[in-house]
Amino acid sequence: MPEHSAPLHAGYAWYVRVPDLPAFLVHIAPLLEKRLAASDFQNHSGALRFNFYASGVEIIFENGKIADARPWRATAGDFGQSGFGNAVFPELTFLKILFGYRSRAELQAMFPDCIMDTDKTSVLIDVLFPKQVSNILPIH
Questions:
Q1: Which domain range does residue 57 map to?
Q2: How many domains does the chain divide into?
Q3: Residue 3 falls within a domain, yes or no?
Q4: Domain assignment present for 82
Q5: What pLDDT, in 10s, does the model give residues 42-88?
Q6: Rounded Cα–Cα distance for residues 25 and 32 (Å)
Q7: Within a domain: residue 137?
Q8: How many CB atoms lie within 10 A of CB 36?
Q9: Most buried in the list 49, 62, 67, 68, measured by CB within 10 Å?
Q10: CA angle, 62 then 68 then 72, to 5°
Q11: How are strands ordered across the β-sheet holding 56-62?
């Protein structure tokens, strides 16, 4: 195992928080754009709104590139499923797909409040945030 890697423990989950989610999404935009380019969404344009109930984030795509990521929140005047964004993730559940710990389908099976507005949204989220093994590099 490389010297700079944290030890791997079966069944262990890291306690991870992101203080500025829009800034982090902009930071990892090249990776997300690479995933889009290898999918049917390579030229995707539009907004993807994530509702975390108390907060949210909106990612703006232009021709398969991330043009912006910014805070977003559904308002009291929003009605119907679309008024609540494209994807609803209660509290911190979104971080589980952001870091590859769980898939969208797993989260939806575990948390009934994880809701996608369309099948297209589900597939787009699967492309952007696939389940994978992640490794934490300590800050020195």
A1: 25-128
A2: 1
A3: no
A4: yes
A5: 999 999 999 998 899 999 999 999 999 999 988 766 655 556 889 99
A6: 8
A7: no
A8: 21
A9: 49
A10: 115
A11: 65-71, 56-62, 46-51, 87-88, 115-116
What angle in degrees, to the nearest 10, is found between the helix axes of 119-128 and 29-37?
120
From the CA atom positions of the chain, what is the Rg in Å?
16
CATH number of the domain encompassing residue 124: 3.30.1050.10
What the block records as the tokens of 3 is 């010297």
Dihedral, CA of residue 104, residue 80, residue 77 and residue 92, to nearest 10 = -20
8 Å CB contact between 25 and 66: yes
Residue 37's identity, in one-letter code, is A
Q: What single-letter DSSP state applies at residue 81?
A: G
pLDDT digits 0-9 by tens, 105-135:
999 999 999 999 999 999 999 999 999 987 7
